[in-house]
Amino acid sequence: MEFPTANTVEAFRENLAAVRAKIERAAERAGRNASEVRLLPVSKTVPEERIRLAIAAGAHQLGENKVQEAKRKHANLIDEDVKWSIIGHLQTNKAKEVAAFASEFHALDSLRVAEALDRRLEMEGRSLDVYVQVNTSGEESKYGLEPGAVPGMLEALRGFETVNVKGLMTLAIFSDDKEAVRTCFQLLRRLRDEARDRDPALIGPGELSMGMSSDYEIAIEEGANVVRVGQAIFGARPTTDAYYWPSATAKQ
User: Alanine racemase N-terminal domain: which residues (predicted)?
Assistant: First the structure.
C-alpha cells in the first residue's frame, strides 16, 4: 500500500478527509454511526514543521509511540493547539514524563506501570485516561496482557484514583490475512463485553482502541472507537514498524 508524503496544509486536509470518508463507509457497513469513532492521527517520526501543517489542517490530538520523541515535540509545539496521546510501550522510569504532559495513554500493560503513573500523577495533581493493552494475536513480539489476565488487571486498577480506564487497546497481527486480523479485533471486543457483563464500572466507557493505517476499516467493522492512523495521513515512514514495536528480546 502506497502512502504519499503530505507536505502542505491542503495535502493534509485531503488525507484527513479521505481517512474520515473511509471511516464513515466502514461504520455504515457495520450499521454504526461514524460519530462513535475517533480518529487519532499518529505523528511518530514526523518532524515538527510538518506536524504544524497537520495541525493547521485540523489534527489537534496526535499519537506518539516513544516518550522522548513525544516530550520533545510537546515542548517544541507548545504554542500549538494540540494534545498528545502516548500509544507505545512505557517503561516505569518514563512515567514521570507521561504524567507531566500526556492527555491519554493507550498502552497500559502492567500493574507496575500503573503504580508508577499513579504516583507521578498524584504529584502533578492530575489524572490520566488510559487504555489497557491486550495481546490478541498471541505473538511474542507484541506487548500487552494475555487475554486471561484482563479481568484481574481491571480489578486491580480500581485502586488508582488518578488512572481512568477508558477501555482496551490492541495491535492486530501484522498480516495480509484479513480474517486473521479481524479475529484479533473480535477478541478485544469480546473481552470488553465480558468485562461489562461482570461489572460495567471496571471498563469505564468501554472504548476499543484498535486499527492502524492498514486495517482500521476492519477494526471499525468490529467495533473500534479509536483508530490510530499514521501513514495514511502523514505518508510512509522512513523506519520500519519493528523500530516502534520491538521484538520480545528487546522488551524491558
Answer: 15-238
**Going by C-beta distance under 8 Å and a sequence separation of 6 or more, which residues neighbour residue 244?**
44, 65, 66, 88
Q: Which of 129, 93, 127, 125 is nearest to 112 (CA)?
A: 93
Helices (H), the chain: 9-29, 48-56, 67-76, 95-101, 111-124, 150-156, 178-198, 216-221, 231-234, 241-244
Q: Domain 9-237's class?
A: alpha beta
Average pLDDT over residues 195-211: 96
The answer to whether 22 and 217 have CB atoms below 8 angstroms apart is: yes
> For the ranges 81-85, 116-120, 195-199, 244-248, which has the lowest average pLDDT?
244-248
Cell of 243: 523500530
Q: What is the rounded CA–CA span in Å between residue 206 and residue 208?
A: 7
Q: What are the residue ranges spanned by the domains of the chain?
A: 9-237
Which residues does 225 contact at the CB level (< 8 Å), separation at least 6?
Answer: 36, 37, 38, 167, 207, 208, 209
Q: Quick check: helix, strand or coil at residue 131?
A: strand
Angle, helix 67-76 to helix 48-56, in steps of 10 degrees: 70
Query: What single letter denotes the amino acid at residue 209?
Result: S
Judged by phi (left if over 0) then psi (alpha if -120 to 50, else beta), residue 164 lies in beta
Among residues 158, 230, 239, 171, the alpha carbon closest in space to that of 199 is found at 158
Rg of the chain in Å (alpha carbons): 17
